[in-house]
Structures are given as structure tokens and as C-alpha cells.
Target: CRISPR-associated endonuclease Cas1
Amino acid sequence: MKKLLNTLFINQPDVYLALDGDNIILLKDDEKLGRLPLHNLEAVISFGYTGASPALMGYCAERNISLVFFTMNGRFLARVIGESRGNVVLRKKQYRVSDDELKSAKIARNFIVGKIYNNKWMIERMTRDYPMRVDVTQFKEVSHYLSSIILDVRECEDLERLRGLEGQAAISYNKLFNQMILQQKDSFYFHTRSRRPPLDNVNAMLSFAYTLLANDMASALEGVGLDAYVGFLHRDRPGRISLALDVMEELRGVYADRFVLSLINKKIINKDDFLKKENGAVIMSDESRKKFLTAWQNKKQEKITHPYLNEKISWGLVPHAQALLLARYLRGDLDEYPPFLWK
Model:
């Protein structure tokens, strides 16, 4: 299993990234803010892109260190990718399957089964842990409904219908999301998903979490030799990491949503951590983003037992495990892609 290394997050604007030997140097107005060895890093993620030296980009590309740039609001700008080390046979198989909608649907439905199953068990856990604070009857009804959708998804061989079933499940799950917010309810509430831009505190946090998860998933897929831009459920679109978005579907709720809920319910993030712009967009402050990223890194270190591999790994390695299982399926080593089923 891959060793989980550190991710360096640069959250301060106007920082230039440079190389000094085997170290990354952080510079601002010719002042050296920090110096860190690169051999301990698997990724460098910079918010508020100012620039990076060609030497640093080349070093990271050669050593498969992910170098990613976002705006301060968390909008993706670019990833530095080196020479493709993917197995050419594996990638050709991936492309052939992606071009075949029936074969794509048979893989994609497992991503959706994983997503709905995990959301169902999030709902079940809420009724078990907080029976006096949620509408248990409503939660149980939605749980049973999600079980019925899973059966339909398992038999589905049409991508368009699969998206429709996923949408129905998402609507039912989202109706309960606000009840899962147990603290700070005056400042944190969820009525509907708003993306570009996020229009409330919860959506701002969800968007940020999904952005981080998508990047982790893309790096994991590239690491096993797959093309993160060629998906099965999400079809080709220039600049979109379609396969990463595919595989992260099963982790959205159980990984990202639960993480956001924990920050709210444990009062790690509060109402003062957000800014509202003139166009109604809500963004996280620099300080709140630091708290978010620190908690995200701590979450990645937590140990779980992988439900398929039956091996104890950290949460941060789950994307790598799923990428490896997908590669094994495409190579013909597995009869079916096993989604991450959390309970």
C-alpha cells in the first residue's frame, strides 16, 4: 500500500514558490517565509497563485509530486503533470471502455451504488446516535427509499437513466442534510446545493471539501497509471478531471460531507469564519481556510478498516485504494469494480 506523505498547503496570497536543492522555498516580497524538504511531500497545493519557478515545476513533475494551483476562493486553475508513467495497455483499455456507453454504465453504476449506500448509512447512524434530535420516521423512510434505488441502480445499463436515479437519491438525501447540522443552526443551514458561487456557509465548506477531495482522487488515479480526465459517468469535457469526479462520488458523503458536518457540530468553524461578497457569494476567510486545511490533514491520518481489502489504512489512502481497485478491474484481475461501502 502506498505510504501517505504530507501535503503542503500555501494559504497566504502573493507567495512565490521556488526550488533550492531538494527543498521548496516560499518567498513573499523577497522575504523567505519557509523552507521545506520535498522528499516528505506528495503534493503542494497553493491558493492565490503568484508563481512557481520552472525548476520547481520540473522537479515536482519528475518525482510525481502533485503541484496544484487554486484561486483564493478555491477555484481550480492548473495542475503540473510530468511525463505520463501510466501503463499504455491500461490506459488504452480505459479509453476503449469510456467510448462504449454500455461498458461505461456497468462501471459507473458501482460508483453510484457506493454513493447511495454510504449516504444511507450516514442517515442510519444519525437515527442511532441522535434519535431525539432528528425526525427518525422521516430518516427511516428515506433510508428505505435509498435501498430501493440501489436495487434499480444495480440493474441499470443506461448512463442517462443512471444519472436520473442518482439525482433522485441526491434529492432525498439533501432533504435531510439540514437536520444533520446539530449545532450553530442560526448560522449554518442547508436548503439546497449552490455551487458557483456558494450562497451560504455550508455550501462554501462543501465546495471547498469537494475541491480538495477531487484533487486527491486525481492524484491517486494518475499514481496507478490511469488518466484522471477520461471518465465513465462524467463524459469528456476539456479541463475536467472526469474520472476523478466519477470515483469520488462514493466518497462525497462519507468523506467530505461528514467532515464538514463535524467542523460545524464540533464548533471548529463558526459564523465569523465567512465573508459575504456583493454578488451574494459566501467565501471562507483566510483564517478559516487554515483551520479547515489543518483538520482535513488530520482527518486523512485517521485509521479505518477498508471494507473490501480488509486492511487497516488511513482515510487519506482510501482514494489510492479505490484507484488501485479500478485499475485491477480494467486489467481483468477483478470481475467487478468494488466500490467503497462504509458502515
Q: What stands out?
A: The first strand starts at residue 6 and ends at 10.
